[in-house]
Amino acid sequence: MGKLDVSLLQYITKEDFRVLIAVEMGMKNHELVPGPLVAQLANLRSGGVFKKLRNELCQNRLAAYERGKHYDGYRLTNLGYDFLALKCLSVRGSVVGVGSQIGVGKESDIYVVKGQNDRMLCMKIHRLGRTSFRKLKEKRDFHHGREMSWIYLNRLSATKEFAYMKALHQRGFPVPEPIDANRHCVIMELVNGYQLQQVHDLKDPAQLYSDLMELIVQFANNGVIHSDFNEFNVMITDQDKPIIIDFPQMVSTNHMNAKMYFDRDVQCIITFFKRRYGYESELYPDFDKDVERIYDLDKEVAASGYSREVNAFDDMIGKQNKDDEDDEEEEEEDSD
Predict the structure, then answer these.
(1) How high is the pLDDT of residue 307?
(2) Does some domain include residue 328?
(3) 248: CATH
(4) How close are the terminal C-alpha atoms of the chain, in Å?
(5) Catalytic residue of the set 72, 204, 228, 240
(6) DSSP states of 36-52 as a string?
(7) pLDDT digits (tens, 9 = 90+) for 60-93
(8) What residue stretches are annotated with the RIO kinase domain (predicted)?
(9) Which of 139, 143, 153 shows the shortest CA–CA distance to 326?
(10) How would residue 324 be classed by pLDDT, with cut points 50, 70 and 90?
(11) What is the rounded CA–CA span in Å between residue 330 and residue 4?
């Protein structure tokens, strides 16, 4: 882990950003964006665009030129996409400085950033595709016949997370306060605590176990299921109070597999507490008996203006997960 070097950001001109945005727009439907299309989308002279791409943006690793099977073209790098998001967040005043990296996962990078009034915040950069969804590159045409890029997938993931975090925070759930989002970056409150998987001693394991099970039920009572409720996505404060993070996998209780996701969340907590703290309880929630919907938080998110992006992300991930399961079954049959 280190620091995201944003020193170059101050030297990027408006024309540079126009070219980067043009490449971004082209990548919605192309893995590699042809140079003439970049010039057309940027509404700049072709000669000037090629010079900026080759001599400035590619040399600074904000874009990359590659030779494809059928044609050559440009793509944004992770750093280039980071710069586009940070530029917008800085213009809005949500981020005025970037600090050190404090976390890294298979699907995200986490940084400390400075917001308004020197408030220290957390920036989550979605990095789907690093190790997950391994077949997506070969199956880019599964969403309404369009080819999907990592950039689009990460933007949808961040949009969904911000939408659910905002709705949950407004309902009083123990989640980080959402501040802002742009593209694949989500700015939120910096939680003063530790991941549950880092905590080896608890004052009262039974109380925390009960609190977490109650949260799973309260999520469901409000119409949503976390779907990834485990020791990596539960933060613990110094008072042993839980704060829940990471919401891209959240689903509605109306989902066809809602009970399976609910039971999986419950089992993750049961298994972890038994393994880590030696704590076992006969009490755990049942989806059919203990869930009673009292609020339609899932419908609230759908009506919030984020529904198109959230549904698109869910469609893609659902399709990808099914394809991966089918591939794993085929591999098992071949091994037999």
Answers:
(1) 59
(2) no
(3) 1.10.510.10
(4) 41
(5) 228
(6) HHHHHHHTS-HHHHHHI
(7) 999 999 987 778 999 999 999 999 999 999 999 9
(8) 67-296
(9) 139
(10) very low
(11) 41
Whether residue 237 is contained in a domain is answered as yes
Which segments of the chain does DSSP mark as H helices, in order? 14-26, 35-42, 46-51, 78-91, 150-170, 205-221, 258-277, 287-290, 297-302, 307-335
Does residue 56 sit in helix, strand or coil?
Answer: helix
Residue pair 8/102 in contact (Cβ under 8 Å)? The answer is no
- Comparison of pLDDT for 149 and 194, the residue scoring more: 194
Contact 82, 151 (CB under 8 A): no
- Residues whose CB falls within 8 Å of the CB of residue 81, separated by 6 or more in sequence, listed in order: 24, 151, 154, 183, 184
- For 164-185, what is each residue's pLDDT tens digit? 999 999 999 999 999 999 999 9
Q: Assess contact for 76 and 62: CB atoms under 8 A.
A: yes
End of a domain among 49, 66, 91?
91
- Residue 52 sits in which domain range? 1-91
Residue-by-residue DSSP string for 123-152: EEEE-TTSSSSTTGGG-TT-BTTB---HHH
* Tokens 């839980």 -> residue: 242
Strand-pairing partners, residue 66, are 73
Q: Is 298 a catalytic residue?
A: no
Spatial CA neighbour of 130 closest among 78, 80, 182: 78
Strand pairing class (97-104; 108-114): antiparallel
Q: Give me 30's structure tokens.
A: 């192309």
CA separation for the pair 35, 48 (Å, rounded): 11
- Please give the tally of structural domains in the chain: 2
- What is d(CA 9, CA 230) in angstroms, rounded to the nearest whole number? 37
User: Measuring CA to CA, which residue among 85, 86, 94, 97 is closest to residue 177?
Assistant: 94
Q: What CATH code is carried by the domain that includes residue 74?
A: 1.10.10.10
- Does residue 336 lie in a domain region? no
